[in-house]
Design goal:
Blueprint (H helix, E strand, L loop, with lengths): L1 H5 L6 E6 L17 H10 L3 E7 L1 E2 L15 E6 L22 H4 L3 E2 H19 L2
């Protein structure tokens, strides 16, 4: 991450795509693997500005060909807002705070949200109609 950021010019863009074969979970963050939280943490580590980040998302809830049970790729697009060598945050005062991912997804829908809605509807129907 440091080398990719170092070679960028000021305002240069970096795109990182990491394939995954696991489900993402946030309790409160998932930075151990290359999911959205991990991508955002890498961006913070080298002081670049995340413009877009997501894992296993689609433009709408019906775009089932975009979602995957086993291949939940993550993407980060970030901008280097400074010249020269890589800048790191002050780790003595740094605190890991979960990022609000919603604005960085730019309206894309998460896979588990789609799945969660179906699961919730199934539970409601089961209780209402005693299936």
């Amino acid at each position: 991450m440091e080398e990719m950021t170092r070679v960028l010019k000021k305002d240069g863009l970096l795109c990182v795509i990491a394939p995954n074969g696991f489900a993402e979970h946030r309790y409160p963050v998932d930075c151990y693997r290359f999911f959205t939280d991990g991508m955002l943490s890498l961006a913070k580590y080298v002081s670049i500005e995340p413009l877009h980040a997501h894992t296993n998302c689609a433009p709408n809830e019906n775009a089932s060909d975009w979602y995957s049970e086993t291949c939940a790729d993550s993407i980060l697009i970030a901008r280097k807002p400074y010249h020269g060598q890589v800048k790191h945050p002050d780790f003595k005062t740094y605190k890991c705070v979960p990022s609000n991912q919603e604005p960085l997804r730019e309206g894309l829908y998460l896979y588990h949200r789609k799945k969660g809605i179906k699961r919730l509807w199934h539970k409601i129907k089961k209780r209402l109609f005693r299936e």
